[in-house]
Amino acid sequence: MSKKRLSVIIADDNDMMRSILRGMLRGEEYDVIGEARNGLSAVEMIERLRPDIVCMDVVMPEKNGVEALSEIKAKLPETEVIMVTSNSDPETVQESIQNGASGFIIKPFNAARVLDTLEKIGNRIRQRKPSAG
């Protein structure tokens, strides 16, 4: 029984972080369909490509991850957004959860934690979507 591959967009202003995340997801059951380096282009790309999951950095230029998160959830409530942050202060976490974040990945991250977080969310998405054929 093969799982449906899930589409992912990575939003992070740090090229290194994006490539690390992309590397972790490659070959698993995920397709990285886009990458954004600021909150503004992230929102635009997510609205256009409608991924299953977004890995959203909290601290980004032009629009931070929490602002981008609330815009995305307002327009595409089904989209699962995981906040990626090195700053796990309670206010950020609280604000992200209130705005509809699905989970957190704390930097520096390890592959096991990242894939574990995505798998939990992936299972939730798969339960929601009746699998075709």
Tally of strands: 5
Number of helices: 5
CATH architecture: 3-Layer(aba) Sandwich
The secondary-structure element order is EHEHEHEHEH
- Can you give the mean pLDDT? 91
Distance between the termini: 11 Å
Strand order of the largest sheet: 2-1-3-4-5
The domain tally reads 1
Low-confidence stretches: none
Spatial extent as radius of gyration: 14 Å
Q: Which fold name is given in CATH as the topology?
A: Rossmann fold
Helix content: 40-55%
So what's the CATH class? Alpha Beta
Instruction: Please state the structural category.
Output: alpha/beta
SSE blueprint and pairings:
Layout: E1 6-11, H1 15-25, E2 30-36, H2 39-49, E3 53-57, H3 65-75, E4 80-85, H4 90-98, E5 103-106, H5 111-128
Parallel strand pairs: 1-2, 1-3, 3-4, 4-5
Helix pairs in contact: 2-3
List keywords for this structure.
five-stranded parallel sheet; alpha/beta; single chain; 133 residues; Rossmann fold; globular
